Model the fold of this input.
Amino acid sequence: MEEPASTSGPLIGLVGPCGAGKTTLVEGLTRLGYRSRPIAQEHSYVKDMWQRLTHPDILVFVDASWMVTCQRRKLNWTEAEWQEQQHRLRHARENADLYLDTDHLSRDEALERVVEFIGKKGGF
Done:
């Protein structure tokens, strides 16, 4: 992966359920010099909280199934709680520039897909 020259450029917002990989992606993007922020929309009943918290130039919806989120983060939550987060995230999902299902992706593969998308959008 080619690294951008600076931390200028678009702000990338990452939204999705707990355990989907938002924090990991933000860490990877930051390491590569991209401006990125995790957006904790999944904890809010306000449908457009993602827009109120961050005004991203590129919105990435990072998703994972309930079973995978439980495995990754050792979450002790029910499928109904995961479904509630999915419900709260519907507005962000509908407005995302990129939808990324991370169930079968490694950390590096997920990061590579986001960086590739940013490049196609003319992000750097």
Observations:
- Residues 1-6 have pLDDT under 50 and may be disordered.
- The CA atoms of residues 46 and 122 lie 31 Å apart.
- Strands lie at 11-15, 35-39, 58-63, 98-101.
- The first strand starts at residue 11 and ends at 15.
